[in-house]
Amino acid sequence: MAPETIDVLRSALPLPRIEDARRILCVQPHPDDVDIGVGAAIAKLARLGVEVVYLTVTDDSVGTLDRGLTPSSLAALRREEQEKAARVLGVKEVRWLGYPDAGDYSEHAVRQDVIRAIRQLRPDLVVTVDPNLPYESHPDHLRCGRATAAAVLLYNFPHIRTDPAVDEAFTPYAMKGIAYFHTAHPNAYVEVGEEDWQRRFEAIACHRSQVDGPTLELYKFYFDLKAREYGATAGCERAEAFRVLTPQMMHCFVDAARI
Fold first, then answer.
1. Partners of 181 in the beta sheet?
2. Pseudo-torsion of CA 8, 13, 19, 24, nearest 10°?
3. What are the angstrom distances between the C-alpha of 113 and each of 97, 138, 196, 247?
């Protein structure tokens, strides 16, 4: 019997291992998205010596039910919370783009900003939210995921211009790929131990304006179920899940959803 097409492709086009990256750029729509989504994996990678940088697209200035908290005050608070959480996880640097939370801003502009960050930092791997998550309805998540994916596809093309000084200093290089989190179709898993698992929730707890005590307990319950489900697939106790693709798989590749 002839081998299945997908088995041949998986052999010919192996996916990069997330743990093999030496520098990772995490592009998130709001402060807390990476911490909530894959904070234990980030803690593990940073502990193993991977250089992790966060790039946050929006200011998260509307993410509250408190009418007495002004958008500017909330945005400042969210920065403080993310900086604190990043230190818990061992993140090297936190960068901000400052687009208006749930606002009317250009996906193209975000793409250009992410390309500029890639050219400056030269990450091995870019991590972001999966814009193809079924029923995902938050416009910031959709824009962030799509813009980041486009940046990973296009960052090497010299006629795409961002910042003149950055563009002139940049020389093309081969990135390993993109790793989506908050994904319904994972194809890669990072095993996480108890220390890094607890750091995830310590980091989430830093986002006090967003996560109260009952919500944190709900997260602990649900995320533990999912991590053990992913771990059963990966052959370990707990794991966090990603969908990994190489840049070559992100354009006119009809089997990308099956890899």
1. 129
2. -150
3. 8, 20, 31, 18
Residue 256's nearest CA partner among 199, 194, 177, 189 is 177
Q: Which residues contact 3 (CB under 8 A, 6 or more apart)?
A: none
SS3 62: coil
Predicted confidence (pLDDT) per residue in 84-117, tens digit: 999 999 999 999 999 999 999 999 999 999 999 9
Structure tokens at 212: 């109260």
Q: Which residue has the tokens 């771990």?
A: 231
Q: Which of 57, 69, 66 is nearest to 103 (CA)?
A: 57
pTM for this entry: 0.97
223-256 residue pLDDT tens: 999 999 999 999 999 999 999 999 999 999 999 9
Check residue 151 and report its DSSP letter: H
What is d(CA 244, CA 256) in angstroms, rounded to the nearest whole number? 10
Rounded Cα distance, 34 and 43, in Å = 11
Q: What is the pLDDT of residue 4?
A: 84
Please list, in sequence order, all residues whose beta carbon lies within 8 angstroms of the beta carbon of residue 139, skipping any fewer than 6 positions away: 102
- State the CB neighbour count (10 A cutoff) for residue 4: 10
Could you tell me how many helices (H) and strands (E) the chain has, helices first? 8, 7
**Distance between CA 6 and CA 178 in Å, rounded?**
20
In CATH, which of 3.40.1360.10, 3.40.50.10320, 1.20.120.1200, 3.40.190.10 is domain 24-249? 3.40.50.10320
